[in-house]
Amino acid sequence: MKHEDTQVDQVKKEGREKRKGGGLLRGDLLLLAGVLLFSLFFWVAVRLLSKEGSDLLVSVDGETRMTLPLDRNTEQVIETELGRNVIRIRNGSVTCEEADCPDKLCVKHHAIHREGETIICLPHKLVLEVKGR
Ligand SMILES: [Zn+2]
Questions:
Q1: Separation of CA 99 and ligand 1 centre (Å)
Q2: How many whole angstroms from 48 Cα to the centroid of ligand 1?
Q3: How far is the CA of 100 from the centre of ligand 1 (A)?
Q4: Domain count across the chain
Q5: pLDDT in tens, 86-115
Q6: Average pLDDT, the chain
Q7: Is pLDDT of 24 > 90?
Q8: Each residue of 49-69: pLDDT tens digit?
């Protein structure tokens, strides 16, 4: 009789441990779901807050050189005493196609099209900024 009791206790203990493990797993899933939900919310918020731009503002050393509409494909050469940059607008996206700056960071920069996005050529003091409507 005493022996059986211990066995029952053992089964109960195992059952409790299994339940505890299951609870942990559920907690992990909840956490994962929460993280996914948060990421989705964040992604949607970013999409909603960053609007498509309408114009490109080109400035050199803080001075506006030109404003170009993003809906017109064009290629412009910006030449200053500091250097030369070729900027291109294609299908609403802006890239710096060519530059004779030493770091070429502006050329390597991904295409920009959202309001507030910038491509900066530091050696040439050139700033390309997408403006909203
Ligand atoms: Zn550059």
A1: 6
A2: 31
A3: 7
A4: 2
A5: 999 999 999 999 999 999 999 999 999 999
A6: 87
A7: no
A8: 778 899 999 999 999 999 999
Q: Which domain holds residue 40?
A: 2-49
92 and 32 in one domain?
no
User: Same domain for 38 and 96?
Assistant: no
Gap between the Cα atoms of 50 and 31, Å rounded? 28
How would you list the strands of the sheet with 55-60, edge to edge?
A: 63-69, 55-60, 126-131, 118-121
Q: Let me know whether 31 and 65 are in one domain.
A: no
Q: Same domain, yes or no, for 61 and 124?
A: yes
Single out the residue of 94, 113, 75 nearest to residue 121, CA to CA: 94
Report the predicted TM-score, pTM, of the whole model to 2 decimal places. Answer: 0.66
Instruction: Note the pLDDT of residue 50.
Output: 77
Ligand 1 centroid vs 76 CA: distance in angstroms?
Answer: 15
List CB contacts of 126: < 8 A, sequence separation 6 or more: 58, 59, 60, 78, 80, 82, 85, 106, 120
Residue the block writes with tokens 């493990």 = 21
Phi, psi dihedrals of residue 81, rounded to the nearest 5°: -65, -20
| 46 — pLDDT class (breaks 50, 70, 90) | confident
